[in-house]
Amino acid sequence: MGPLGHSLAALSAVAAAPFGLLGLALRPSWRVGCAERLGWHPAGRRASPGPVWVHCASVGEVRAARSLLDALADEGSPVVASTVTTSGRDLLRSLRPGVPCGLAPLDHPWVVRHALGRVQPAALVLVETELWPCWIYAAASRRVPVMVASARISDRSLPRYQRVGALLRPLLGCLAAVGARTPADAARFVALGVPEERVEVTGDLKLEPPAQPQTLAPALDAVLANTPLLVAGSTHLGEEEVALDALDRALAHGHSLALVLAPRHPERAGTVASRVARRGRAVHRRSRLGSEPLRAGEVLVLDSLGELPAVYGRALVAFVGGTLAPVGGHNLLEPVQQGIPALFGPHTENARSSAELLLRAGAGRRVTDAPDLANVVEEALRDPAAWRARAEAGHKALERHRGAAQRTVGLLERILAAC
After folding, report:
1. pLDDT value, residue 166
2. Element (H or E) spanning 394, and its range?
């Protein structure tokens, strides 16, 4: 970094300091992981020489990156990881406790330089679209190759990137490689400025089938064992009400059904539970779980991390949130990977390839509103065997995508060999 860069970094630090100190004083949540955000990654100097640093945004990217982390471990590569959110960090620590994981450093030149100096990575792998300018430039200046894995540019993001194309092109030119999800994503990265010879279609890590379906903790398994379940996962504001409406209708028509609600952001669990109670439904929370089985008409709010995939496996009907709310969709494949067809709304811009795959295979259904969801729930309740049979077609479709993690590792190995 030259004198001008140091001056700009100093000015930005001075300007941000009062706001940062005020935020730390007024919002205790900002204090969580503060040292990590300032570049003190937990791996520190204790990391193995030259680890691969895998960075994920939050929970969804962590789940996608599991197969990549496992493939790197199988190759004997030391690995560290980071996430933007504390929920993503906590999930990764619980799923892969052997991988040192901390919060990502703030994207400031001094902070990322300090973080890179502590970890001394051999390569930096950014999952999906985590394009942090200072971090990428700092890595490139240290001759640390930067790769984007399972890379995507959504329909929503593309116009924004195009508007700042002149600023984005030098940044993308620093990338050593892009492992794109699809040919369309690859073409978008090339059009935005990544040299074509550095872009390769390696596949979608979220489409990588897990080696084994996830299993439930025994206590939770016992609670969910006796009643057909509608599971609404990764929900946003308004989607819980839709699921509750579907539960009301099924019960009014004489069906036995209970509901599990898993808000996308666990901190909303208290608000969600209060809304359920106002609807007159008995409500339980995973964090305060008793031993009594969930009964028809009752609701469990899943306020834990990492258990949703296994809970999908207990469902009769699974709805994936962020799709009726205009968010763009979350991981539509998790229910199918657990042997359950997936329902989702019209907003699947962030999961377009997954939605298309499931719809083609018959393992996914698109619903438009509460009555539509209720109709599908009743259809499944009338013939549960036929409903579950849909998931087998989805499982076969996903098997064709196995190997995305290995292709990603292969691309990473090639860029490391070229350094």
Report:
1. 87
2. helix 384-399
Q: Give the pLDDT confidence score for residue 2 in this predicted structure.
A: 45
Angle at CA of residue 202, ends 200 and 204, nearest 5°: 130
Q: Which single residue is written with the structure tokens 């009062």?
A: 18
Active site residue 334: no
Which pLDDT score is estimated for 23? 38
Sign of CA dihedral 121, 89, 135, 160: positive
Residue 45's pLDDT is what? 56
Query: For residue 382, what are the contacts with CB-CB under 8 A and spacing of at least 6?
Result: none
CB–CB of 281/244 below 8 Å? yes
DSSP assignment of 151-219 equals E---TTHHHHHHHTHHHHHHHHTT-SEEEESSHHHHHHHHHHT--GGGEEE---GGGS--SS-----HH
Contact 4, 77 (CB under 8 A): no
- Block means of pLDDT (10 residues each) for the chain, length 419 residues? 40 40 43 78 68 92 91 92 92 92 93 93 94 95 96 88 90 96 94 95 88 84 93 97 96 95 94 96 94 94 92 95 95 92 94 90 93 92 87 84 92 92
> Listing from the earlier edge strand, what are the strands of the sheet with 283-285?
283-285, 299-301, 258-263, 229-235, 317-320, 342-344, 364-366
3-state secondary structure of 328: coil
**86 with 13: CB under 8 angstroms?**
no
pLDDT at residue 401, as a whole number: 81
All structural domains of the chain, each given as residue ranges with its CATH number in brackets, are 32-208+402-418 (3.40.50.11720), 218-399 (3.40.50.2000)
Token readout for 291 is 């031993």
Entry pTM: 0.73
User: Is residue 69 within 8 Å of 81, Cβ to Cβ?
Assistant: yes
The SS3 of residue 47 is coil
The active-site residue, picked from 36, 61, 130, 239, is 61
Can you give the pLDDT at residue 157?
Answer: 85
Token digits of residue 102: 């901390």
DSSP state of 105: P
pLDDT for res 40: 86
